[in-house]
Amino acid sequence: MGKADRLAAQRTRQKIAAQQAAARRAETRRRIAIAGGGVAVVVLLVIVLVLVSLGRSPAPAGPAFAPVAADPAIAREITTVPATTFNRVGAGTATGLKPITGQPELMAGRTPELLYMGGEFCPYCAAERWAIAAAVSRLGTLTGLRFIHSSPADVYPSTPTLTFADARYASKYLQFVPVEWYGEKADPATPFGHVYLQHPTPQEQALFARYSGGSIPFVDIGNRYLVPSAQYLPSALAGLTWAQVAAAMHNPASAIGRDIDGAANMITAAICRLTGNQPASACRSAGVVTAGQSI
After folding, report:
1. Distance in angstroms (rounded) separating the CA atoms of residues 156 and 233
2. Is residue 139 in some structural domain?
3. Which pTM does this prediction carry?
């Protein structure tokens, strides 16, 4: 990664951190407002009654983006990015990973584990899932993907993405453990203000509490490397279809290709350090080797 790319990645990382801190502050303010919002609720009910009496319906809060079955052709594009594309991208514009010395190692027997914890509403999770899907597919077979959008009411609204809620993964090199902790429907009673979807184990919750800083996505690779939030800004995906994002992942000259494929190379490089550089077809590829120099 050249000096200009490193500076760009650092700026992106700082911007993501600042935006997530602002989002947490906004969520705190929202919860305070909800706690003391009895009067506001009464006023809202009066407004609704008035609208109904005039023969009108109140405007909906926003579209609900229910998961849809992934088009097999698009899913295949996501999970079969050519090695030549990864090699041309290298580290791309990804912000990189954070080494840690967590104990114990996150392993399933002798196989390293990649733990993902996120939420379907979350725009940063939306961005990072593309890279995770591309990376783990280089070491195994990922199926059961469905397409969704992030929340229309959050920052980077309605970011196109996929969900791991029903995903299945088979590999002799890696154990991929995705936990879509939260769905999209609002629920002010939960820590992230959205309904629970899948529940992490006590061990997974302990890792989250220790290393996440209270933010999602939380991606722990073998308890040796962490993904510090998304590795690129979700704004890169704004207004695109799933097919357009998948196609861009095959174009190393595209901004999205440099974002997603660079991030995938970073994740793959971290996994390869835990597998003894197996499989060699991925671990010793030029793109992974180059990305590994930035970890």
Report:
1. 9
2. yes
3. 0.81
Q: By residue range, what is the domain housing residue 119? A: 68-292
Tell me, what amino acid is at 198? Q
Closest CA to 139 of 271, 43, 250: 271
Distance between CA 178 and CA 210 in Å, rounded?
18
Parallel/antiparallel/unpaired status of strands 107-108 and 175-186: unpaired
135 in any annotated domain: yes
**265-289 per-position pLDDT tens digit:** 999 999 999 999 999 999 999 999 9
* Residue 265 to residue 243: CA distance in whole angstroms: 21
Dmax (CA) for the chain in angstroms is 70
- Given a cut of 80, whether residue 240 has pLDDT beyond it is yes
Give me the half-sphere count of Cα atoms (radius 13 Å) on the Cβ side of residue 213.
Answer: 15
- 276 inside domain: yes
pLDDT for position 96: 84
How many structural domains are present in the chain?
1
Query: What does residue 97 show for φ and ψ, rounded to 5 degrees?
Result: -120, 170
Query: For 7-36, how does the pLDDT look when each residue is reduced to its tens digit (9 = 90+)?
Result: 555 555 555 655 554 544 444 333 333 333
Alpha-carbon gap, residue 16 to 127, rounded angstroms: 12
Decide if 212 is inside a domain: yes
